[in-house]
Amino acid sequence: MPSVPFHYVDLRTFCYATEDDKRVEAALRHYLPEEFEIEVAPTEGHHGDRIVVLSARVENADEMRRVLGQVAEIDQIDRVMDELDERVDENCSLFLRLDKQAAFNGRSELGEGITLRAKVEAYPAKQEAAVENAREAFENAREGAY
C-alpha cells in the first residue's frame, strides 16, 4: 500500500441556525472514517444568530486514505488534478471546497459548504514538489491503491 504524502487533512463546515446539526454532521462524516471525533464549537453570527463550527483533523495514514478515497470519487477529479498548481499554495497546503448537500446525500462533489485543507509532504518544502505529491496521491486514490 503506497504511503500517504500528507501530514494531516483538516475538514471544516458551518451549521447555520436554519440547518439541522445532525444533517450537517452527517455531511462532514461522509468524508471521515467511522466513529471519528468531530470538534464542535458554537459561536454567534454578526446579527446574533447561532452558528456551529464542526471540524476534524485527520493525522493517521489509514484515516487519511479514507478521506482521499472519498475525495477521489469527485466527478471532476481530473479538473482538480489539472488545477493543483492553483490549489496548492507556497506553504504546501492543498485547498478544496466540497458540496455539503451532496455529501449529506452520500456523494462527493466540488461545491460550497465543506472546506478541506491538507498539508502536503514535500522535501524540499516547495510548491512544485507538493503539487507532484498531491497528484500522485489522487492518482493512487482514484486507482483504488489506498
Automatic annotation (TrEMBL):
Domain of life: Archaea
Protein known as: RNA-binding protein
Residue ranges of the TM segments: none
InterPro entries to which the protein is assigned, alphabetical: PAB1135-like, Ribosomal_uL5_dom_sf
Pfam families documented for this protein: RNA_binding (PF01877)
